[in-house]
Amino acid sequence: MLDGSHFYDVYECADGEHIGLGPLEPKFYALLLEKLGLESDPVFTAQYDKENWPACKDRLRAIFAAKPRGHWDQLLLG
Predict the structure, then answer these.
(1) Three-state helix/strand/coil letters over the chain
(2) What does the alpha-carbon distance between residue 26 and residue 47 come to, in Å, rounded to a whole number?
(3) pLDDT mean over 13-26
(4) Lowest CB count within 10 Å: 21, 22, 40, 70, which one?
(5) Burial of 50 (0-12, 13-18, 19+ CB in 10 A)
(6) Which sign, positive or negative, has the C-alpha torsion 11, 6, 23, 45?
């Protein structure tokens, strides 16, 4: 079920560090989208629609590559 998913993967940050995602439950996935400003993006709204996973993964790759790991830790931890 998770093989190839965008929400259960590791992404490289701008400083070469990595961040792992794993919001399996819809409420945690919704929180991730909110924190990343993606909550109204139609590509992301259907968490388990495998057809959208490659596009979502590409977009997340670009988002996380734009800022260092410390930024993402501060935004997402807690």
Answers:
(1) CCCCCCCCCEEECCCCCEEECCCCCHHHHHHHHHHHCCCCCHHHHCCCCHHHHHHHHHHHHHHHHCCCHHHHHHHHCC
(2) 8
(3) 96
(4) 40
(5) exposed
(6) positive
